[in-house]
Amino acid sequence: MAMVALGLFPQGAEGITKIRFETTAGLVVAEVASADGKVLWSRFENVPAYVAAQDIPIELPGYGEFKADLVWGGNYFGIIDLSDSILRISPENSRELSRLGLLAREQIRAQRVIQHPTQAHINDLNFMTFWHPATIEGALYKNVHVFSDGQLDRSPGGTGTSAMMAMFEARGQLNLNQPILSEGLLGCGTFEGCLVGEVDLNGIRALRPTVKGTASILGFSRWLIDRNDPVGAGFIVN
């Protein structure tokens, strides 16, 4: 959206601009809608999503036993249903959700070998997702994604919405071409998702997810590389 709003990419015909991104997870095609000089929304077709495993046993201390599904939606997600738990997804519970997400992630890593069927470099689980019924009218569910060192995603998540739709479809709770709304941690907005088709992913049935939402430009940054800086191009420490 920002590229179109700032004029960095020419607007397409009839108010729809299509942009293709090559990402580490695969090719992503996005479209941006504009009218009267304003950007309205963006929608992208994500990489194919699929369910890698279901009903992985998880123990959440203080809350009991749960089952997790392992799903690819552009990232691997361990998805846990909190519908029958007293724990609610809200900013007030962020520390507890973060703590439990990290514990659950380690349990899945210990039980499952994770490997993407076509991308050899993708072989780890980083995201844990908790969900329960939505608080926003019309939304299918509310979720929070816990990732990296325990950070929480405030939004419903693009790859997360893709993974959630694949999970629901595999359980017979969502049909192809059935739009849904997903609610994030803050409860102040939704993404619109839809599964628009099926594809074969190296012998695995996968789904084509689309995600639609809006965003705002919050600021600008400028990065420089000094030729005399020995680490000017960046570095990685593991």
From TrEMBL:
UniProt keyword list: Isomerase
A GO MF term: proline racemase activity
InterPro entries: Pro_racemase_fam
Highest rank taxon of the organism: Bacteria
E.C. numbers: 5.1.1.4
Family to which the UniProt record says this protein belongs: Belongs to the proline racemase family.
Protein name per UniProt: Proline racemase
Origin species: Budvicia aquatica
